[in-house]
Design brief:
The complex is a heterodimer of chains A (294) and B (313).
Chain A (H helix, E strand, L loop, with lengths): L1 H11 L3 H20 L31 H36 L3 H15 L2 H12 L3 H28 L2 H9 L3 H37 L11 H8 L8 H25 L6 H19 L1
Helix pairs in contact in A: 2-3, 2-10, 3-4, 3-6, 3-8, 4-6, 5-6, 6-8, 8-9, 8-10, 8-11, 9-10
Chain B lengths: L1 H27 L5 H9 L5 H11 L5 H13 L13 H36 L4 H15 L2 H15 L15 H27 L2 H8 L4 H9 L4 H25 L5 H10 L3 H29 L1 H5 L5
Helix pairs in contact in B: 1-13, 2-3, 5-6, 5-8, 5-11, 6-8, 7-8, 7-11, 8-11, 9-10, 11-12, 11-13, 12-13
The chains are: A mainly alpha (294), B mainly alpha (313).
């Protein structure tokens, strides 16, 4: 119950608009396949480029695919892509950053230089270069964006790890005879994971934008899978006759990015005191108290 | 100050070196044999011997460190090798396209710089007033809208509906307006917030209150005394935005059918032309590292505390 109170407390401090937008995006992304009135992939040239009607709420594109269904299906594509990329990037970033923060000295120097090089190059360029070497495709895009994103996470987790390592409770643990593995996995890692997850939320908007940008350039999500950036570029040649095909996916994408940016900005302004890390620390404190009693 | 600058420069050189190794390993680790690709390009259906000759020619059988230094000495002279697709020299192709990209970035830079001060000042004149909330919403919208969507909307409104500007192409100043605005909106939005927040912070400092009590008008203090205070933060953000704009060229050049360096890099990525990808990546990375160094130096120069203090940072 304590956990739920913490989460609701945190959410109540965030701007309402951002919460609604992101929540809406998640709901649409998760329930997409049951919401679409038509199959987003079915081509029907007889009904190509028709305007809004009771049958097609937002009209159809140049191949007669239902625009409304495609917009909804795109949310899922975006959400799944984001989750996969974040999972990979967070795993690499947190392991390397935490290791650097734990094992100071030479190891840290080498690891952080790698991060420096990675961070000196904008993520989109890194992603494009990786795609240029390995070719286009869904998994290559995921790999490319994960490679582009981990250095930021590594830097944040290192800062958190160094902070935690300087705290007295780690020293007390050493005195109590805790093994390095215990300190690393049970005391250091959970704290960094919590803090970096919050940071990742702030970054999710940029990630959604990158997926769309790569798809817009024809290097990300490949047709026929619907994706906002790719729908937009599909509609560009028909800008004059049917601007709806450009405006609708663009608006959808912008709303999602605004939601995440809003969320990220308020997190950056420290309105949220690292909810997850606080939770975890609370549990740890309880645990150490138990030890002291023993 | 000099010590500080030298330290930053040394770090930049180390980064450049590491980045060049990164670019090199990226292509070396690429799947597929480069010699076969080139042989196919020269004569379709090339024999094994022809492939061996090309391998010798490119020094592909040499140890890695020798290949690296051969490649690096070529790069320093501006020789990036040849493109597998077109067979032309990448260095020459890049040089021919630099002016297009330069026009785009310079124009976007000017738009971002001017607009950021206009929006930022408009907000700071009367904090939390109508103009402030208006500029804040504009900035939030500008910072969150994808640049390709902004570009598409500008084309639709000003080129298709109003026919004021050409829809695409690089044909004289009239065709430059829309790309400039497209690329300049993001930096303008982000930087206007920096100006606005920085000015408000400076206005709450004791010196501003002293100036106010001496009878100076608020707008005068805003312009003359508070403005230099935001310089270090602003320059830092400006550097980050300049880097962002360079990335933006990759997206915006194809949208307006401009043939610049970003477009060349994108073609390289599309056709998996490793040499072009490598050259483009190296050029972008060098540009970012040098830009970061310049920003660091400019920040040190603009901050009196850092300027006077010796080596410590």
């Amino acid at each position: 119950m304590i956990m739920f109170r913490d989460i609701t407390e945190t959410i109540s401090k965030l701007p309402k608009l951002a919460i609604y937008l992101v929540f809406f995006f998640f709901i649409i992304g998760l329930t997409g396949p049951w919401l679409t009135p038509h199959d987003p992939l079915i081509v029907n040239l007889l009904e190509a480029g028709v305007g809004p009607s009771a049958e097609h709420w937002m009209g159809t594109d140049h191949l007669g695919r239902d625009t409304f269904s495609r917009l909804i299906a795109s949310a899922r594509t975006s959400l799944v892509g984001m989750s996969l990329i974040l999972a990979f990037a967070l795993t690499i970033g947190i392991s390397i950053g935490t290791l650097a923060g734990y094992q100071r000295g030479k190891v840290e120097e080498v690891l952080m230089r790698m991060v420096d090089v990675g961070q000196s190059i904008p993520s989109l360029i890194v992603a494009l270069a990786v795609i240029g070497i390995f070719g286009t495709g869904y998994w290559n895009m995921v790999l490319a964006l994960a490679i582009a994103w981990w250095p930021g996470f590594a830097r944040v987790s290192r800062v958190v790890a160094v902070n935690v390592m300087n705290k007295p409770h780690i020293e007390s643990l050493r005195v109590l005879g805790a093994s390095p593995a215990r300190i690393f996995f049970l005391h250091l890692l959970p704290t960094t994971i919590g803090a970096v997850l919050v940071y990742a939320t702030a970054d999710a908007g940029a990630l959604a934008l990158s997926i769309a940008t790569l798809s817009f350039l024809g290097l990300g999500i490949q047709p026929p899978t619907p994706e906002w950036g790719q729908m937009l570029v599909d509609g560009l040649p028909f800008l004059e006759s049917d601007p709806r095909q450009v405006i609708l996916p663009g608006l959808a994408l912008t709303l999602v990015v605004i939601g995440f940016n809003f969320l990220g900005e308020s997190i950056a302004l420290n309105r949220v005191p690292k909810p997850l890390s606080r939770l975890i620390l609370k549990r740890r404190r309880f645990e150490t108290n138990e030890w002291i009693k023993e | 100050m000099r010590k500080l600058v030298i330290k930053r420069a040394r770090n930049a050189i180390i980064l450049l070196f590491l980045a060049s190794i990164l670019c090199f390993t990226l292509v070396v680790s690429a799947p597929g044999n480069i010699a076969i690709l080139i042989a196919e390009l020269r004569t379709p259906g090339a024999s094994t011997e022809a492939i061996h000759i090309i391998e010798e020619e490119l020094g592909l059988n040499n140890p890695l460190h020798i290949r690296y230094f051969d490649w690096l000495s070529g790069v320093v002279k501006g020789d990036f090798g040849i493109s597998y697709k077109t067979g032309e020299s990448i260095g020459e192709a890049m040089a021919g396209r630099l002016s297009t990209t330069g026009t785009l970035v310079a124009g976007g830079f000017a738009v971002g710089f001017v607009l950021s001060f206009v929006l930022g000042f408009a907000g700071a004149l009367r904090p939390y007033g109508f103009l402030d909330s208006l500029t804040r919403s504009v900035a939030l919208l500008g910072a969150s809208t994808p640049s390709f969507f902004v570009g598409a909307m500008l084309i639709y409104a000003f080129a298709v509906e109003l026919s004021l500007f050409p829809t695409f192409g690089f044909v004289g100043p009239q065709s430059w307006v829309l790309p400039w605005i497209t690329i300049g909106i993001l930096p303008a939005s982000v930087l206007s917030r920096i100006v606005r927040v920085g000015l408000e912070e400076a206005m709450s400092k004791p010196f501003a209150i002293t100036a106010r009590s001496k009878g100076l008008s608020r707008n005068m203090i805003l312009l003359k005394d508070s403005l230099p205070n935001i310089a270090p933060t602003y320059i830092n953000a400006l550097g980050a935005q300049a880097a962002g704009m360079t990335v933006g060229t990759i997206v915006i050049e194809p949208l307006f059918a401009w043939h610049g360096v970003g477009d060349l890099f994108l073609q390289g990525v599309r056709f998996r032309d490793f040499m072009v990808v490598q050259a483009g990546l190296l050029i972008f990375v060098c540009f970012f590292i040098v830009l970061n160094l310049l920003v660091d130096i400019a920040v040190i120069m603009s901050d009196p505390k850092l300027r006077r203090q010796g080596g410590q940072s």
